[in-house]
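User: Run a structure prediction on this.
Assistant: Running it now.
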Amino acid sequence: MKKLAVVAFGGNALLRGNEIGTIKQQEKNTINTAVNLLHLLRNEYNLIITHGNGPQVGNILLRNEAGYNTYKIPKMPLDICVADSQGGIGYMIERQMINLLRVNKLRRRVATVVTQVLVDINDNAFKEPTKPIGPYYLKEEADLLAKSNNFIFKEDARKRGWRRVVPSPQPLDIINKKLIKELSKKGIIVIASGGGGIPVYYDEKKELQGIEAVIDKDLASSLLATEIQADEFFILTDVPKVYLNFNKPDQKPLDRINVSEAKKYYEAGEFGEGSMGPKILAAIKFIENGGRETIITEATQLSNGDLGTRIVP
């Protein structure tokens, strides 16, 4: 039996902080990340890839505004923008994976599944938006955009600028999880739950409706890993391990910790709310719901014997 793993691509898998986001830049970053998955494929893993979409969906929203202001093109709601980003990013990852598989003579197929994720319309997140999307702005630029578009901006915790924030409700269910699992069990590499999934809810008629929100990709990836009964959950980020006292003179790497230790550190505020915090919470949820192991690391470390930070029951 092959192991089943969900691999969550971090934001730097597609776009680096100093880049503007041209398709050439994103394709280069994608293939540089995806090449590290070959190690897992050669070790008989079945893979499901998830990814973020913060900068991309933010740019789609800016095109929304520009198109409306210049040509009166109707604005699309945020759930449609998330779906657009899922399709575009999924296509990019799928194409690069197909190229890598061919060059490395690995016989796997790849499929992108546009994924809806159920949320609660009464989630408190809709009252207090916290999820950053789009590029960083100077304070003056953010103020102008907030005034002209009724957006809400908050300053980045690492002082890199100001970003728009939107509601980020808790993911409750992956709508097409059975299909995703069936495809992955056949050895197909599945790209799913992009950007945390398209947020939907059931109305009074029990019909699915989209809603203006962005779901945290790590929490949605954790839920997907749980619902399809994945063996392992990989969270790829821009550091090789999780650290206590991160970026301080006494920072300490964590190699292998159990879920109780992870909860203790999380509740003590060791991990940044907008950076490592959601990843640790996603890891905890996966383990507490039956997962065997979560690995948090940088993509190039996947073939390293001393692999990242491992969180176990």
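The chain has a mean pLDDT of 94.
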